[in-house]
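To whoever is on call:

I kicked off a structure prediction for a single chain this morning and the downstream step that reads the tokens threw a length-mismatch warning. I double-checked the sequence; it's 528 residues and nothing unusual in it as far as I can see. Pasting both halves so you can look.
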Amino acid sequence: MKEVMKMVFRPESSAPADSLWEQPADQVELTLEEGERWWGGTASDGLLMPFGDAAFARDLGSPTNQGSPLLLSTRGRVVGSHRPFAFTFESGLLRVSGREVRAGRCGRTLREAYLAASREFFPPSGRAPARELFTAPQYNTWIECPYTPTQESVLGFAAGLLEQGMPPGVLMIDDSWSPDYGTWHFDRGRFPDPAEMVRRLHSWGFSVMLWVIPFVSPDSAAFRELEGRGLLLRDRDGETAVRRWWNGLSALLDLTNPAAVDWMTGRLDALRAATGVDGFKFDGGDAGDYRADDMTFRPAEPVDHCEAWSRVGLRYPFNEYRASWRMGGRPLAQRLQDKAPLWGTAGIESLVPEMLAQSMLGYSFTCPDMIGGGEIKAMSVEGASADQEFFVRYAQVAALSPMMQFSLSPGRVLDDEHLAAVREAVAVRQSLMPRLLDLVDEAAGTGEPVVRPMAYQAEGADDVTDQFFLGPDLIVAPVVQRGVTVRSVVLPAGRWRADDGTEVEGPTTVEVACDLTRIPRFERLRGV
């Protein structure tokens, strides 16, 4: 490990200062301070964060992935609301337009801004998702069995993982396990005895989750029932809305109606009672599926439907979401949007920045999508040959994230060398599991994120977004570029011990050798 340059850092901040909030307004304009950077808005903009050094604009009326009407400054300022707003950075100014937007000086640092915003806009619930979502890898049938899961293929998928030496974990049965969307019972033609399947998976050490959505197939019995009861979304003309989504055309539950929520949770609770499944992957519910002029039981904007869908999952400790609005601090597992199996910013290089964006919006229980990529249109299963280096490096990012999830079966697409490297990444995760679970509990209790931008713990590292803090004292710097065997790691002030035992004094930047099996990481040595 070679030390290459010295960095200038301000000391790590102390406890948050008292917040000084301005009166709510519909228009806010702030002059950017020298070197000030901002986080927030929507996780899908993570690659562009922190904002402030270039022109940027975003309307949060229809966010993608996880979103919140919130902006946090590395100089301790906060802009937030309970309603969506639009914002622009241009010519040294931040302009925000919305309703009841609040701006405040809440300290001097990003951490102080985050904690003040947490208290004001997304206080911690005191709960985390099910422990099992963290303590072992998750496995999803989506890439191995897209649209075609059967009882036999699900059991074969799980058995194959165990034969490869992978530990049992949470197994998610994805799309098309039911006869229709909205008909929430197993298709008995493909799952003749789902209770026996779940019992067997439990005996092997797996927990079981099922994929669900807020859509309802037209011309189904469920559609006729729900339309007759007035529980479906209506368009501006008062007709039942049928919208195109990635699987075709469907109606949507009107989740502003408590009776529609009761209908959905009643079906899910019955599924759990009848089959023993542990919980649900809540897909869909994107704000873009709704219209501002839709007719609803209660007045709602598109983001309110997304939030309503997210609230359904609060009932179930085993949960997962890919789209949420204003749900920071809640005990929900939040997965990044589906990723293509690509090197570069369109794929693997987006993982860390977008997880950091999730964290700064209060979504602490994050998952960097499915290892190897979860974008089905970019994946081919039959005869597929995965980029094995890519798969390993993706697994290493996920291994030291709050959650890691496989869908491609590692033993099917990897040779012995690369499968061993993936197992090593899982072993590194397991060695850090006590720390990880402590951080999960801290996030549930205090709101402090599990994964943190460098600037959260080390002022002066505002633009370092390809590495992160796992808690306050461990820096993780995964490799995300093809063929790289040496990478730079920025270290703040203090004494640091690398995963290979080397010690170095910061602030500095070091060059670290990183063969196929290494996940570069540095532990702060307190009291040295």
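Update from on-call: the warning came from a stale cache, not from the record. Cleared it. Sanity check on the structure: Residues 3-17 have pLDDT under 50 and may be disordered.
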